[in-house]
């Protein structure tokens, strides 16, 4: 599903963010990416959906070699990868329904299919009753659920989450995590960067620990570790 071979990433300012990563993530896995601030987690995550490109090495996702992928083909790649951010990134002037539908409209899906699919995923995230609300009328947890609905409306095979509970209170964080578990149980591969020690230690999944741009630990049912 996801394969990285001899990945290095040096930014223009000379900072070596990723220092020789080799990793394989199989279909249907749920993986936490942990480590101290500045360890390279975000760069690691961003390279999976071509927000960042490695300086050298090979990344293959769903059989597609990202190092050889033309810029014009990147949108097609991202249709099969759902991305959820810490700050939701919803469009403020669109309703909940319209925010989720937008992901289908940009690929030219017909309106009948859009309506059915959007209502289905809003039902999954328990926000069907707020389809006509705007983002500023929702709580933080509800906004994150809309973001998740938008990320899965295309039925992606891979879901990338970068600190998805970072702006949420503990109770809401657990609600969001149980939703991620449900999505994973339906067959979607999930890779999640997180600083939430309690969640990682309670919901036992594969843990990849990154420090100084290197993978220092890879455990099938791991724990968070001693990070701030």
Automatic annotation (TrEMBL):
Keywords, in A-Z order: ATP-binding, Cell cycle, Cell division, Cell membrane, Membrane, Nucleotide-binding, Transport
Molecular-function GO terms, alphabetical: ATP binding; ATP hydrolysis activity; transmembrane transporter activity
Membrane topology: Peripheral membrane protein
One GO location term (cellular component): plasma membrane
Subcellular location, record wording: Cell membrane
Entry keyword Zinc: no
Keyword match Cytoplasm: no
Pfam families listed in its UniProt record: ABC_tran (PF00005)
Parts of the chain that traverse the membrane: none
Record-linked InterPro entries: AAA+_ATPase, ABC_transporter-like_ATP-bd, ABC_transporter-like_CS, ABC_transpr_LolD-like, Cell_div_FtsE, P-loop_NTPase
Residue stretches making up the ABC transporter domain: 2-227
Any one of the GO BP annotations: cell division
NCBIfam families: FtsE (TIGR02673)
Assembly, per entry: Homodimer. Forms a membrane-associated complex with FtsX.
Role of this protein: Part of the ABC transporter FtsEX involved in cellular division.
Sequence similarity: Belongs to the ABC transporter superfamily.
Protein name: Cell division ATP-binding protein FtsE
Lineage: Bacteria, Bacillati, Bacillota, Bacilli, Bacillales
Annotated gene: ftsE
């Amino acid at each position: 599903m996801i394969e990285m071979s001899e990945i290095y990433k040096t930014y223009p300012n000379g900072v070596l963010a990723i220092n020789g990563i080799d990793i394989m993530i199989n279909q249907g896995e749920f993986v936490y990416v942990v480590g101290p601030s500045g360890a390279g987690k975000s760069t690691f995550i961003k390279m999976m959906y071509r927000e960042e490109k490695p300086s050298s090495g090979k990344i293959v996702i769903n059989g597609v070699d990202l190092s050889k992928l033309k810029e014009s083909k990147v949108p097609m790649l991202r249709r099969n990868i759902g991305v959820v951010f810490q700050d939701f990134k919803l469009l403020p002037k669109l309703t909940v329904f319209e925010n989720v539908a937008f992901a289908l409209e940009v690929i030219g899906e017909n309106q009948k299919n859009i309506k059915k699919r959007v209502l289905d995923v809003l039902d999954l995230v328990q926000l069907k009753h707020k389809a006509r609300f705007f983002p500023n009328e929702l709580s933080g947890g509800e906004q994150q659920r809309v973001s998740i609905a938008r990320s899965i409306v295309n039925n992606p095979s891979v879901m990338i989450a970068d600190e998805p509970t970072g702006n949420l209170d503990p109770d809401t964080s657990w609600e969001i995590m149980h939703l991620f578990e449900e999505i994973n149980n339906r067959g979607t591969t999930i890779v999640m960067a997180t600083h939430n020690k309690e969640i990682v230690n309670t919901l036992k999944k594969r843990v990849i620990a990154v420090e100084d741009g290197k993978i220092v630990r890879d455990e099938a049912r791991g724990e968070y570790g001693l990070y701030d």
